[in-house]
Amino acid sequence: MSLTACAQQQYNHDAVHYLQRLIRFKSVTPDHGGAITWLVEQLTQRGFTTEVICSHGVTNLVAYIDFGVGPTFAFSGHVDVVPAIEHRWCCAPFAGDIINGEIIGRGAADMKGGIAAMLAATDRLLCDEPNQGRFYWLITSDEEGEAEYGSALIAKYLQEQGVRVNACLVGEPTSQHKVGDTIKNGRRGALSARVRVSGRSGHVAYPENSINAAHIGANIALVLQAIKWPEDILGSKTCLQVTAIDVPNSLDNLVPARCHLAFNVRYSHAYHSDDIINTVEGALSSWREYIDISWERPCEPYYTSPTSGFDAIALLEQAIYEVTQSYPSLSTSGGTSDGRFFANEYTQVVECGVRNHTIHQDNERVAIADLTVITDIYEYMLKSVFNRDEASQC
Is there a single domain that holds both residue 23 and residue 11? Predict the structure, then answer.
C-alpha cells in the first residue's frame, strides 16, 4: 500500500466507520454474519496473507504480514456478540447509530470496538513503513459461547504451523473509568460444578426415619463459602459463589430426598483446576456417601509477568502513557478471555481495550472519544513493535 493511498484511506475510513460497519454484521455466536468475510477483504487489501478456518459452525481468521526480521506480534479478537432484544434498545442494535457522541450497537464495546480500532491503527502503521517483525491477526466467531472451536483451534493451528508468537494483544474491553486505566496481564481460571444430594424421604413428624437432603445441601453451601485459599496472591483472589440451590419438593410434610446445588469458582493463577477440585471434594468428604459432584467448563488461568528484553507489558504501559499521560493498573480480575489459549512459556499475553461499563447490556455503546484514544494507543504500540526507530506519527 502506497503512502498516498494509505493516508487517503486513513482519513476516509477511520475507526468510527469501521466500527459502524462491523456492528451491522449480525454476528451472534457462533455466526460471524459476514464480519470475517469483510475483515478478510480489508486485510488482503493491506497485504496480509489470510487463512479462514471453519469448524462446527465457527469461523476463524488467521492473517499475517511480514515486515522483516524481528518479533512476532499478534492481535486477538472476536466478532461474535451476545443476542440483543431489540424492543429494549433506544435504536436498532445492529445499526451502529451515533447518538450524543456515542456509537450504539451490540458489540460496540465487546469487542468490535477493539477490532475497529486495531484496523485503523494498522492503517497508520502501514503508513509508517514498518521494517521489522511479523504481524498476526487472530479473529474468531466463538468467544461468547463455549469457545471450543474458536481461539483454541487458532492456537492449535499456529502450533502446527510452527509459529511462535512473542506477544499477543487481546482487544477485550478492559478499561473502567477511562480508556487505558486498566490492562489485564492475566485472568483467573473458572470452574463450575453441580452437586446432587441424595437423602431418604419420610414424614416430617418422624425425621429419625429419613435423611433430609435439604439440610445436607444447606450445610454444603456453608462449607463451600468457608473454604480458604492460602495460595492466593495479591490482585488475584479466588472466589467461590453458590449460584443455585433447588429442592424439588412441593409438600410441606415430606422430608426431601433430593437437593441440587450449583457453584462457580474463579481462581487465582496460583492454582490449577485439579487443585480446585481436590480442595472442594476434600471439604465435602464427610458427605461423600450422599453426594455426586459433576465438574463443568474448566477454563485455566494465565498470567504474564514483566520480563527482560521484549516486554509486552512495558510496551503497552508506555503506549498508554504517551497517549493519556497516565500509567495503567495491572489486573487479573473479571471473567475469562481467549487470552488463555495463547499464553504459554514463550508468548506474553496482555489485554487492553475500551471501557467495559456497557458490555452485554441493552444500548451497549462506546464513545467516539474513547474509540479515538484506544486507536492511538494501539498505533503507538504497533509502531514500537514493528519500527526499529522510535514510534512516530503517520
Answer: yes
Q: What is the pTM of this model?
A: 0.87
What letters, b where the CB count within 10 A reaches 16 and e where it falls short, cover 89-114?
beeebbebbbeeebbbbbbbbbbbbb
Which amino acid is residue 347, in one-letter code?
T
8 Å CB contact between 255 and 202? yes
Which residues are known to be catalytic? 80, 143
Pull the grid cell for residue 7: 493516508
What is the distance between the alpha carbons of residues 126 and 204, in angstroms, rounded to a whole number?
Answer: 76
- Tens of pLDDT along 80-134? 999 999 999 999 999 999 999 999 999 999 999 999 999 999 999 999 999 999 9
As a whole number, mean pLDDT of residues 160-180 equals 97
Residue 352 within any structural domain of the chain: yes
Rounded to whole angstroms, the Cα distance separating 249 from 205 reads 16
Could you count the other beta carbons within 10 Å of the beta carbon of residue 335? 11
CA dihedral 77, 79, 80, 84 (to 10 degrees): 120
Q: Which of 250, 279, 299 is the last residue of a domain?
A: 299
Amino acid at 12: N
CATH number at residue 270: 3.30.70.360
Sequence-separated (6 or more) residues with CB below 8 Å from residue 143 = 29, 78, 80, 150, 151, 337, 338
Give which of 147, 144, 140 is closest to 39, Cα–Cα: 140
**pLDDT number for residue 235:** 72
The burial of 282, by beta-carbon neighbours within 10 Å (0-12 exposed, 13-18 middle, 19 or more buried), is given as exposed
The reply to whether 239 and 336 lie within a common domain is no
Would you say 195 and 291 are in contact if contact means Cβ atoms under 8 Å apart?
yes
Q: How many CA atoms lie within 13 A of 144 on its CB side?
A: 20
| Structural domain harbouring 271 | 189-299
- Are 339 and 247 found together in one domain? no
- One-letter amino acid of 364: E
- Does residue 342 sit within a domain? yes
The residues, ordered by sequence, that sit 6+ positions from 366 with a Cβ below 8 Å of its Cβ are 19, 102, 103, 108, 109, 113, 354, 355, 358
> CA–CA separation, 236 vs 269, rounded Å?
7
In a domain, 57, yes or no: yes
Q: List, in order, residues 6 or more apart from 346 with CB less than 8 Å away.
A: 164, 165, 166
The CA distance from 219 to 339, in Å, is 37
